[in-house]
Amino acid sequence: MEVRQCRALNCHKLVELPHYYCDEHRELEAAYLQSRMKWSHSHDKQYAKRYDKTKRVATPIKREQHKFYKSKQWQDLRTVVLNKQHYLCQYCLTEGRVTQGNTIDHTIPINFDPTKKDDVNNLNVICPECHRLKTDWEYKHY
Ligand SMILES: [Zn+2]
Ligand SMILES: [Zn+2]
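Above: the input record for the complex with zinc ion. Below: its predicted structure, written as tokens.
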């Protein structure tokens, strides 16, 4: 037999599960169960809504991004930045290392700020190693 303490204030009587209140306080039980149900229900609804929203928003954004990376505008931008930065990883440079790279990275990820996707000041050459580290980092911070 499993027991717990009655949930009524200052009542320390033990009640048998699945009850939450002793006989004396049993009328409080229905209200308690109802409030619990209401909470868990609204919680579920909230969660479902949030999940829906991410799902609905994520797909068009992904498609939009894919289109952008295929565009002439992006190819041109890429070339400009690669030439301007001499194909050198800008993240390595700040640490005094000279490493070649041919990937262009958005310093501020475009998922975070899509308006910076074609902002030259937000673009940097990055080497594979830094790219991997930065992606890990962004995953945790954005
Ligand atoms: Zn009680
Ligand atoms: Zn690097």
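Notes for the reader.
Residues 72-142 form one domain.
The CA atoms of residues 45 and 51 lie 10 Å apart.
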